[in-house]
Design brief:
The protein has 15 helices and 5 strands. It is an alpha/beta fold. The protein folds into 3 domains: about 130 residues; about 100 residues, no CATH class; about 230 residues, no CATH class. The chain has a 5-stranded mixed β-sheet with strand order 3-2-1-4-5, with helices on both faces. The chain is elongated, with a radius of gyration of 44 Å. The N terminus is likely disordered. GO terms for molecular function: hydrolase activity; metal ion binding; nuclease activity. Pfam families: DDE_Tnp_4. Its cofactor is a divalent metal cation.
Length: about 500
C-alpha cells in the first residue's frame, strides 16, 4: 500500500493514501457482492432442483395411486360379477328343482344372497364412481355416473321372431296362434301391461312381455329356458307371466268369456239340436283336472284318488268346470276347487249353480252334463243305471255327442297350452289366474278359427264318479224320458246301439 502513495506538497500524501484506501475498499465490496450473487444463484438453483424433484416424486405417487385405484376397482368388479354369476346359476338350479320338491326355504336364502350381492355391487359401483381421472378418492362433481350392472343375455331368438318376414308357420308353432291374433292381444293389453323407462334401464316392450307369457303357457317349459329364449332374468320372466295373466283375466275375460245373450242362445240351441236331436241344449258341461305339486296346506283335499289309481303315481290336482258352446268356446267357468271333490260338488260350488237355481238363468233350457253330474231342472245327464232299454241307449248315445263337444274343447285347451299337462311351480293362490288366462286365450283362438296342429291334441280322461244323489228332480226325470222316446221313435237315435 505504501508503494501506491505519492508524496506531494501540503498533505497530498494523505489524500493519495485515502484514495488508494477507497479504491481498495471498493474492490473488496464489489468482490463481496459478487460472492453474494453467486451464493444467491446457487441457493435458487437448489430450490428449483428440489421443487423439480418433489414434483417428479408427486407425479410418481399419483401414478401409483391411480394404478392402485384402478386395480382395486377392477378386482372388486370382477368379484361382484363372479358372485352374481354364481348366484344366478344357483337360482337357475333352484328354479328347475322347484317343480319337484319343497324349496321355498332354499329359494328364500338364494334370494337374500342375490340381494346382498346386488347391494354389494351397487356399493362398489358407487365407490368407483367417486374416483376421478386424476386418481383422487373424492370426485369434484364430474365423476362417473352410477349405473346398474345387468347380466348380458342374448335376445337373438326373440328378435328373430319379431321380424316382419319371420315365417307364419314357425311363429304359430312357437306361440300357438297367428301373428294377427298375437298383435290383437298385444293391442288389447297395451294399456294394462305397458311400463315406462327408468333412469336405470329401459322398460321391456309390451310385445315381448306378452310373448314371454304366451310362450311359457304354450310350451310349459321351465323358467330357465324361458329366460334363455327371451334374454331376461328368471325372476323377471316369472313376474311377467303372472302380470300378463292377470291383465288377460281383468281386461280380456269380460270381453271374450261371457254368457251368451238371447240371440246367441237361440243359435246355440239350434246348433246342438242339429248335432244330437235333443232340443233346448245351450251348453255342454265338463269338469277336468289340472295336475299340481302337493300343496303345503290341505294336502288331502287336493289328492286325486282316481288319477293316482289309474296312473299308479301319487297325483294332486285342481279342477276346471266349463260350459262350452258348439264351436268349442267356453261360456262359463268355475276354476280352483280341490281335485278330491267330485263333479257334482264342484257344480254346487259354482256361480252357475247359484244363478240357475236362484236366478232362473236357465229356465226352459238344458246344460248337458256327464255321469258325474246330478239330474236337475236345468242339467240333463245320461242314464247311469244297469240294463238300459233301447230308448235309454239311444238317449245316451246322443248325449255322448254333446259331451264330445266339451271334451274336444278341453283337449284343444290342454294341447294348445301345454303348461296344463304338467305340474307347475306356480303358487296355488296364483293358479286360478293362470288357468283363467289359458281359457281366455283358448276362446280368442277358437273365435278367430285358429287351426291347431292335430298332433297337439290331447285325449282328455277324467274318471267320473257317480253322485250319491243323482236324481234330484222329478220334472227333469219325466222330461228326459220324453226326450228319449222322441229320439227313438222319430228316427233321430241312430242304430249304433243295436
Amino acid at each position: 500500500m505504501k508503494a501506491a502513495v505519492f508524496r506531494n506538497e501540503d498533505g497530498d500524501e494523505e489524500e493519495e493514501e485515502e484514495e488508494v484506501c477507497n479504491v481498495f475498499d471498493g474492490g473488496e465490496v464489489e468482490s463481496k457482492r459478487n460472492n453474494e450473487t453467486k451464493n444467491l444463484k446457487g441457493f435458487f438453483t437448489s430450490l428449483l432442483l428440489m421443487e423439480e424433484h418433489e414434483k417428479q416424486d408427486q407425479e410418481a405417487r399419483n401414478a401409483a395411486s391411480r394404478r392402485e385405484m384402478s386395480d382395486f376397482q377392477s378386482n372388486y368388479r370382477k368379484r361382484a360379477r363372479t358372485m352374481s354369476d354364481y348366484y344366478s346359476d344357483l337360482n337357475d338350479y333352484y328354479a328347475d328343482a322347484e317343480e319337484s320338491g319343497d324349496i321355498n326355504l332354499k329359494k328364500s336364502r338364494v334370494s337374500r344372497a342375490v340381494a346382498s350381492v346386488a347391494v354389494a355391487a351397487s356399493e362398489i359401483e358407487a365407490e368407483s364412481s367417486e374416483i376421478t381421472g386424476s386418481g383422487s378418492v373424492r370426485g369434484t362433481g364430474s365423476g362417473q355416473q352410477r349405473r346398474l350392472w345387468v347380466k348380458d343375455r342374448s335376445r337373438a331368438w326373440w328378435e328373430e321372431c319379431s321380424r316382419l318376414d319371420y315365417p307364419e308357420e314357425d311363429f304359430k308353432k312357437a306361440f300357438r296362434m297367428s301373428k294377427s291374433t298375437f298383435e290383437l292381444i298385444c293391442d288389447e293389453l297395451n294399456s294394462a301391461v305397458a311400463k315406462e323407462d327408468t333412469a336405470l334401464r329401459n322398460a321391456i316392450p309390451v310385445r315381448q312381455r306378452v310373448a314371454v307369457c304366451i310362450w311359457r303357457l304354450a310350451t310349459g317349459e321351465p323358467l330357465r329356458l324361458v329366460s334363455k329364449k327371451f334374454g331376461l332374468g328368471i325372476s323377471t320372466c316369472h313376474k311377467l307371466v303372472l302380470e300378463v295373466c292377470k291383465a288377460i283375466k281383468d281386461v280380456l275375460m269380460p270381453k271374450y268369456l261371457q254368457w251368451p245373450d238371447d240371440e246367441s242362445l237361440r243359435n246355440i240351441r239350434e246348433r246342438f239340436e242339429s248335432i244330437s236331436g235333443i232340443p233346448n241344449v245351450v251348453g255342454s258341461m265338463y269338469t277336468t283336472h289340472i295336475p299340481i305339486i302337493a300343496p303345503k296346506i290341505s294336502v288331502a283335499a287336493y289328492f286325486n284318488k282316481r288319477h293316482t289309481e289309474r296312473n299308479q303315481k301319487t297325483s294332486y290336482s285342481i279342477t276346471i268346470q266349463a260350459v262350452v258352446n258348439p264351436k268349442g268356446v267356453f261360456t262359463d267357468l268355475c276354476i280352483g276347487w280341490p281335485g278330491s271333490m267330485p263333479d257334482d260338488q264342484v257344480l254346487e260350488k259354482s256361480l252357475l249353480y247359484q244363478r240357475a237355481n236362484n236366478g232362473g238363468l236357465l229356465k226352459g233350457m238344458w246344460v248337458a252334463g256327464g255321469p258325474g253330474h246330478p239330474l236337475l231342472d236345468w242339467v240333463l245327464v245320461p242314464y247311469t243305471q244297469q240294463n238300459l232299454t233301447w230308448t235309454q241307449h239311444a238317449f245316451n248315445e246322443k248325449m255322448s255327442e254333446v259331451q264330445r263337444v266339451a271334451k274336444e274343447a278341453f283337449g284343444r285347451l290342454k294341447g294348445r297350452w301345454a303348461c296344463l299337462q304338467k305340474r307347475t311351480e306356480v303358487k296355488l293362490q296364483d293358479l286360478p289366474t293362470v288357468l283363467g288366462a289359458c281359457c281366455v286365450l283358448h276362446n280368442i283362438c277358437e273365435m278367430r278359427e285358429e287351426k291347431m296342429d292335430p298332433e297337439l291334441m290331447v285325449e282328455v280322461i277324467d274318471d267320473e264318479v257317480l253322485p250319491e244323489n243323482a236324481l234330484r228332480s222329478v220334472n227333469a226325470m219325466k222330461a228326459r224320458d220324453t226326450i228319449s222316446h222322441n229320439l227313438l221313435h222319430h228316427g233321430l237315435a241312430g242304430t249304433s246301439f243295436l
